[in-house]
Design brief:
single chain, elongated, Fic-like fold, two-stranded antiparallel sheet, mainly alpha, Arc Repressor Mutant, subunit A, 59% helix, 2 domains
Length: 331
């Protein structure tokens, strides 16, 4: 017997939004292919993490999250730094998890909430209310029903023939309604919708939906509340689809990396293809370690230069040349 479907209505607005998103995705995917840059994907990932954490009250800036990602010291509340570290790990492991696996859901929660709560990776043992600040949106189902409710939701997700844009939004709303964990439900719901969408279209692994949700945070909570009052997740589906469309429509700014004087000098010096020794000599540097750490590696990490023999990084014939991003800094 197939699992019962959560209550939701397919409205004309939902149909229109799915068509608009599908049309935009084709164009956006082709544009990403042309402009493909690890640096831009990294920027979007940082914004995703910043947006999802900010909704939960984390005050870290994008710059601080970037520093944490790079292993640099950050002065901030320890629990906020831990939240960021956990989120970075969770999004790095995103493609390893299966959306309809409850065991993977628990593993993801363990990664996301490690060191923040005692029962990370476990369903809650007490009863809770879903809150928006001081306001109680609704009382979540009793703790002893959580495991069964999540299992039923996972079965529905694995068997439904609904469009992934719909099923991911329904899952997100139902997950927040069940509120299966003592803490971290909001960021888990957003993470899992991104996971479901990524399995449908890999583009979503690098789309900053969470950042756009943060921009419309009050509307996000209102859509959850309205869906709960109507016993129909259509308002939440419409909100999420509008958010996804807004995210795709928003032009990712071509952020110029903060070039250090050393990297800028290397980019100016690099002509055509040059070996490490040629580059170091042209720069007038004698210290190989300093050249590697202050010039070569930062330029490689920002995808401003690339190896001419990338599959053999230690080859004696190895050379370096400017990437399109590197050339753009010279224009």
């Amino acid at each position: 017997m197939p699992p019962s479907s959560p209550p939701f209505t397919i409205t004309p607005a939902i149909i229109h939004l799915i068509a608009a998103i599908s049309e935009k995705l084709g164009h956006h995917s082709a544009q990403q292919e042309r402009e493909g840059s690890l640096r831009l994907r990294r920027i979007n990932r940082i914004r995703t993490i910043h947006g999802s954490l900010a909704i939960e009250g984390n005050t870290l800036s994008e710059e601080q999250i970037t520093a944490i990602l790079e292993g640099k010291p950050v002065i901030a509340p320890p629990h906020e730094i831990q939240e960021a570290r956990n989120a970075i790990k969770a999004y790095e492991q995103l493609e390893q998890w299966q959306p309809s696996s409850s065991s993977h859901l628990l593993k993801a929660h363990q990664v996301l909430m490690k060191g923040l709560i005692d029962d990370a990776g476990c369903y809650r043992s007490g009863n809770v209310g879903v809150m928006n600040g001081e306001q109680v949106l609704h009382m979540a189902p009793q703790a002893d029903r959580v495991r069964k409710l999540i299992e039923n939701l996972m079965k529905w997700l694995s068997s439904t023939d609904q469009h992934p844009l719909i099923s991911s939004s329904v899952f997100h709303y139902e997950f927040e309604f069940i509120h299966p964990f003592a803490d971290g439900n909001g960021r888990m719901g957003r993470l899992w919708q991104t996971l479901i969408l990524t399995h449908w279209n890999p583009l979503f692994a690098h789309t900053q939906i969470e950042s756009m949700v943060h921009t419309h945070q009050q509307a996000y909570y209102q859509a959850i509340n309205q869906s709960t009052q109507q016993t129909d997740s259509a308002p939440f589906i419409e909100f999420m689809l509008r958010t996804i469309l807004d995210t795709i429509n928003s032009n990712t700014p071509q952020v110029t990396p903060q070039l250090t004087p050393q990297v800028r000098k290397l980019l100016t010096t690099l002509k055509g293809s040059m070996s490490r020794d040629e580059l170091q000599g042209a720069l007038g540097l004698k210290d190989r370690k300093s050249f590697r750490e202050r010039y070569l590696l930062p330029a490689l990490e920002e995808s401003l230069i690339e190896m001419t023999i990338p599959d053999k990084p230690n080859s004696r014939l190895q050379g370096y040349r400017l990437t399109e991003d590197g050339q753009a800094t010279q224009d």
